[in-house]
Amino acid sequence: MTQEYFPLSPSLWAATAAPAPDTVPLDGDAEADVVVVGAGYCGLSTALHLAERGVRVIVLEAREIGFGGSGRNGGQVIPGMKHDPSELLKTFGREKGQRLVDFAAGSADAVFDLIDKHGMDVPRERRGWIQGAHTPAALDLAARRVRDWSAQGVAARLLDRDEVARLLGTDKYLGGWVDPRGGGVQPLSYARGLARAAQAAGAVIHTGTPASQLSRSNGTWRVTTALGAQVSAERVVLCTNGYTDGLWPQLHKTIINANSFQLATEALPEAVRRSILPEGHVSSDARNLLLYYRLDHTGRLLMGGRGTFSEPDPADPAAWSHLENVVAKLFPQAAGVPIAYRWCGHVAITRDSLPHLHEPAPGLLIDIGCQGRGVGLQTRMGQALAQYVVSGDAQALPVAPSSIRPFPLYGLRRLYVSAVIAWYRMTDGGV
Ligand SMILES: Cc1cc2nc3c(=O)[nH]c(=O)nc-3n(C[C@H](O)[C@H](O)[C@H](O)COP(=O)(O)OP(=O)(O)OC[C@H]3O[C@@H](n4cnc5c(N)ncnc54)[C@H](O)[C@@H]3O)c2cc1C
Q1: Is 1 a residue whose pLDDT tops 60?
Q2: Residue 2 reports pLDDT greater than 70
């Protein structure tokens, strides 16, 4: 049932992460109160917050901790959704909209607080997130975002052309805005830190254990694994996101799991390092096909952006050449610094760019759809799911559970995604 995915090992994060906690595959039948499927931020945060409330939790992970987006992302902790606060308030009304805004607003605090609380071994910096504006329309958007977040009490600030050039280290933007709540983490170390914290609280994590079948009888769920073992539990929580397989019918068809590519240079020479993001911000821009970049804690430059739909060959650097070109154009001072790591991962995009929750059967809860903003949001989602499982209070959830609705014409998704990408490429303009 598991598919072949691009491996985690070529990534910068796999090469520099704190060691994973000890885990083994499940090799015999077991019982729990809750089975969580997927050991990314959402599954691990759910498990941690359930275990802290005395719930017996077993986590089943097909590969390894952080194998999905959680071990591969840009490590940018961005407190917000794709939709701005004013859009959420308009769409969902004052009460529900504000609940969503508060949920997103607290997502960066959730990450940094958990790291501190559990003494996780995670390189991190919290100097703010900058969104550069490449067009006049993107500048207007930046102004709206500053207005929206200021109205929520955030010290967001508009940046003019000179200031954005100084803070980013490139003159390719017309301006932008800075959100002081954002920051950067070593994402795989953070996933492993969450796993350790969950284990310390009593959760049991089995890696190398794909869940291959779900069935329910007499009020008890049985999760059968590809290795033949079964776990029985009253509740099951699926947190498989962009790595969702066929475990629950039609679920994978509710997302487009686009591939996001990244590369990281060797450590930059000191003078170059001081010229790029010199005050320690992380950044992603306002393009539809956004570019995201930051330095890591060892002074490497990371660049991320769109990639091919299918998995690239890890041994073929040509698949990342578009990002090398972006580095050369945005940061000519770094041109020529060798590229040390190239990797990619799946981002789960829903049709309304919102996280989706489903409860297709009693005791089964599903979270899916991160839109490429999951370090904070999926951590916070885990807190919310745990609260909901324990209390049954739907107010704990940021969005109401909905029915599973596949993308229309899902079989043709590559075609229409290619068309959308071609359109965005044209409207985004060059770097
Ligand atoms: C390249 C890239 C860059 C990104 N950059 C950023 C960023 O800078 N900032 C940000 O906020 N977000 C970013 N994101 C998004 C973020 O990484 C994700 O939103 C987040 O990690 C999702 O966490 P998750 O726990 O929901 O899912 P995942 O971390 O994807 O975990 C799902 C897990 O489920 C497991 N699984 C699947 N099926 C089964 C099964 N049948 N049985 C057992 N296990 C199963 C998978 O192996 C996987 O480990 C990025 C994503 C990518 C891919």
Answers
A1: no
A2: no
Give yes or no for residue 83 CB within 6 A of ligand 1.
Answer: no
pLDDT, tens only, 207-233: 999 999 999 999 999 999 999 999 999
Does ligand 1 have an atom closer than 6 angstroms to the CB of 73? yes
Architecture of domain 1-124+183-254+351-431: 3-Layer(bba) Sandwich (3.50)
Q: Which atom of ligand 1 is nearest to the CA of 262?
A: 1
3-state secondary structure the chain: CCCCCCCCCCCHHHHHCCCCCCCCCCCCCEECCEEEECCCHHHHHHHHHHHCCCCCEEEECCCCCCCCHHHCCCCEECCCCCCCHHHHHHHHHHHHHHHHHHHHHCHHHHHHHHHHHCCCCCCEECCCEEEEECCHHHHHHHHHHHHHHHHCCCCCEEECHHHHHHHHCCCCCCEEEEECCCEEECHHHHHHHHHHHHHHCCCEEECCCCEEEEEEECCEEEEEECCCCEEEECEEEECCHHHCCCCCCCHHHHCEEEEEEEEEEEECCHHHHCCCCCCCCEEECCCCCCCEEEECCCCEEEEEEECCCCCCCCCCHHHHHHHHHHHHHHCHHHCCCCEEEEEEEEEEECCCCCCEEEEEECCEEEEECCCCCCHHHHHHHHHHHHHHHHHCCHHHCCCCCCCCCCCCCHHHHHHHHHHHHHHHHHHHCCC
Residue nearest to atom 3 of ligand 1 (CA): 73
| Atom number, ligand 1, closest to the C-alpha of residue 74 | 8
CATH (one of 1.10.760.10, 3.30.9.10, 3.40.50.2300, 3.90.1300.10) for 125-182+256-349 = 3.30.9.10
